[in-house]
Specification:
This protein has one domain. It has two helices and no strands. It starts with 7 loop residues before the first helix and ends in an 8-residue tail after the last helix.
Length: 83
């Protein structure tokens, strides 16, 4: 039996969430690299860039959280769907 949900839209929503998580992870990796470089070089412009990206990352987290809530509310997944 396939692991696909009966609703293809639910699967599409989960794929979209997955891609957003990966995008968020890439942003975190970039921030870590920039933060380490900023500490090593005492580059205040790079520090400012990391802080600005932090705001973007926080907004992305809130959006993803809201999207998860919307998916659960609209699709009403069963216990097996949430595993």
């Amino acid at each position: 039996m396939p692991d696909k949900h009966i609703s293809s839209r639910f699967d599409a929503d989960l794929e979209h969430l997955s891609s957003r998580f990966f995008e968020m992870g890439g942003l975190v990796e970039s921030q870590l690299t920039d933060a380490m470089d900023a500490l090593g070089c005492f580059d205040m412009d790079l520090v400012a860039k990391v802080v600005d990206e932090e705001h973007r990352l926080n907004a992305m987290e809130v959006e993803i959280d809201a999207e998860c809530g919307n998916i659960i509310a609209r699709r009403q997944p069963t216990a097996s769907d949430l595993r």
